[in-house]
């Protein structure tokens, strides 16, 4: 019996290693700051010498490369802090060095409930200053629920802004094009629907919609070298997905999914259907992905153009190598905290923020 158990253990270990579930490369992790109250996202500014970090209660912290706080901005916005809501993602306008516009998403409190909203402000580092704060878009996804806001932001090469909106817990609405529930929106930098959106000429469909059938997307990144917008989203019990976004496409939720109800019951018996886009990659069981970037830098030379994903539930950094713009496999790096966001610094290091009451800004470099 002892021999057979040992053989089984060795076989399982081999299978796990072969599938890339354990990291072969070792990482050196440096804690730069451990006093960030529930941080959600970050964006590098000032030629990547400073980083802006959103805090869910409604502040933006300005830190230097060593993690020291230089300033903190309080946002006068109707931010609904609670549940999964608060001040959420942050991105720079592609022409930030000239116009200083910074965009951020938040859960907006309205008289009728809560929704995902996008605001912008001009932020400078020297001196630290925030001016011209304005909300430019409120999603047509109002609900009493305080979860599934989605809320990731990314600009493409045409300076169009993509906004993810979760299904807000009202899953069937993700399949309807008369609302923003479970959608990715594409807007101008002033918050208007992009003129060439797929449903711009349809009177019975919302013109801001770029894609639909999403559950709760919390990862979004644009690869300018391949002109690809990558998105990942939370599944329920299993079924987290990574997708390449395409105009006007239906990504299936809740009609197709690899996940189940939290009770274990089926949501749908289908994992694919004609006319619906299947995921490029999925996770069963769930890792609860949050934050995603593409690595271009000098420190991890063999990782060029590869996706990096953070994980909340599984407490991971996941590397997804690409070949011909298709995901080939995964490599997991076990961490000790829930990872909320992932970015690459100007020094080529990988930076993470953790989802905690005393959240951390972590710097990752190769271990020598």
Automatic annotation (TrEMBL):
Residues 36-363 form the Glucose/Sorbosone dehydrogenase domain. Pfam families: GSDH. This is PQQ-dependent sugar dehydrogenase.
């Amino acid at each position: 019996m002892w021999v057979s158990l040992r053989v089984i253990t060795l076989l399982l270990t081999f299978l796990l290693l072969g599938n890339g579930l354990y990291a072969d490369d070792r990482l050196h992790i440096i804690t730069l700051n451990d006093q960030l109250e529930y941080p959600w996202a970050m964006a590098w500014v000032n030629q990547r010498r400073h980083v802006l970090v959103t805090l869910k209660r409604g502040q933006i912290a300005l830190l230097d490369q060593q993690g020291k706080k230089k300033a903190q901005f309080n946002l006068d916005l109707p931010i609904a802090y609670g549940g999964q809501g608060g001040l959420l993602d942050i991105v720079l306008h592609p022409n930030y060095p000239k116009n200083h516009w910074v965009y951020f998403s938040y859960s907006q409190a309205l008289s009728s409930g809560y929704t995902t909203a996008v605001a912008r402000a001009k932020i400078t580092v020297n001196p630290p200053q925030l001016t011209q704060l304005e909300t430019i878009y409120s999603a047509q996804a109002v609900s009493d629920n305080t979860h599934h806001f989605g809320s990731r932001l990314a600009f493409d090469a045409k300076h169009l802004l993509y906004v993810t909106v979760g299904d807000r817990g009202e899953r069937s609405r993700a399949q309807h094009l008369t609302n923003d529930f479970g959608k990715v929106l594409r807007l101008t930098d002033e918050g208007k629907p992009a003129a060439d959106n797929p449903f711009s000429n349809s009177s019975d469909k919302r013109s801001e919609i770029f894609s639909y059938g999403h559950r709760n997307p919390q990862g979004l990144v644009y690869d300018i070298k391949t002109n690809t917008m990558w998105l990942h989203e939370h599944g329920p019990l299993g079924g987290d997905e990574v997708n390449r976004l395409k105009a006007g496409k239906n990504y299936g939720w809740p009609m197709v999914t690899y996940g189940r109800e939290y009770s274990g019951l089926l949501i749908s018996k289908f994992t694919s259907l004609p006319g619906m886009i299947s995921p490029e990659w999925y996770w069963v069981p769930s890792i609860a992905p949050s934050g995603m970037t593409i690595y271009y830098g000098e420190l991890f030379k063999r990782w060029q153009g590869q996706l990096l994903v953070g994980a909340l539930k599984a407490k991971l950094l996941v590397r997804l190598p690409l070949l011909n713009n298709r995901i080939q496999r995964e490599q997991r790096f076990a961490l000790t905290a829930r990872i909320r966001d992932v970015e690459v610094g100007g020094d080529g290091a990988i930076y993470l923020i953790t989802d905690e009451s005393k959240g951390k800004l972590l710097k990752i470099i190769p271990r020598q």
